[in-house]
Structure formats: structure tokens, C-alpha cells
Amino acid sequence: MIGAREFALMPKHAFFITTARGFIHDEAALEAALRDKRIAGAGLDVWSKEPPPPEHPLLQFDNVLASPHTAGVTREARENMGRIAAEQMLDTLDGKRPPRIINPEVWPRFQERFARTFGITPR
């Protein structure tokens, strides 16, 4: 999505910052834009191959701030994810509507299927 053309459209004082997905930007085009001073710098925490090797060309620039794409990788975050997933599964199997449904439009259909399978309708 972001390659040589897009980097060329950026003003020279611009910083390219991304925390989305590594494949969204062309790393070689970003390297060229930085090398040729077409942009001021970059902030990256996503790579086409993660983690990037220490010799990755983008890591050689003084005007690139790089961080690992691991915001949710803490002991507490992993414990919370496991606990919340287990709680939601137990609630669902107990016939209760789980509190964190990502696609609530499927709930009525799930209630029907649950009722056919277990003989009770989840609330």
C-alpha cells in the first residue's frame, strides 16, 4: 500500500510511522526514501519478517526508531487473555451470553443452535 510513489509524495520533514502490519509498506522503498533524504525518518514496530535481523537495512539509520511488535506480550496480558477466554467459554457453555462478543449479530442464531443441541436457550 505504501511504496516509492507514496514516499515521494511525503514532504521532506515527514516521518513515516506504522504499527499496523509489515506488508503494508515496501521496506526497500522506505530504505531508499530515507537514504535519499526524501523523508525525515521512520518509526516502525512491524516488519515483513518479524523479528527483523540485527543487520536489517532500516535498523542502520539514525533517524529510524524501531520497537518490537509485542505490546500485548507481557505475563499479565497473557494471563488475562487465558482467563478471559476461559471465562467466556464457561459462560457460553453455562447458557449465558458472553460479555465480549465481537460479532453480536450471530447471537440469535447461536441461541437457536444451542437450544437444539442442549435443550435450553441461552439468555
How would you describe this structure to a colleague?
With 123 residues, the chain is mostly helical. It has 2 domains: 4-66, no CATH class; 75-118, no CATH class. It is built from 4 helices and 3 strands; from the N terminus they run H-E-H-E-E-H-H. It has a 3-stranded parallel beta sheet, with no helix packed on it. It starts with a helix and ends in a 5-residue tail after the last helix. The model has no long low-confidence stretch (mean pLDDT 90).
Describe this protein with a few key phrases:
123 residues; mainly alpha; 2 domains; three-stranded parallel sheet
Explain briefly what this protein structure is:
By secondary structure, this protein is mostly helical. Helix content is 37%, strand content 9%. The chain has a 3-stranded parallel sheet with strand order 1-2-3, with no helix packed on it.
* Number of DSSP-assigned strands: 3
Portion of residues in beta strands equals: 5-15%
Mean of residue pLDDT? 90
Backbone shape: elongated
**Quick one: biggest sheet?**
3 strands, parallel
Strand order of the largest sheet: 1-2-3
Order of helices and strands: HEHEEHH
Low-confidence residue ranges? none
Class of secondary structure makeup: mainly alpha
What's the tally of helices?
A: 4
Give the helix level as a range of percent: 25-40%
Q: Quote the distance from N terminus to C terminus.
A: 44 Å
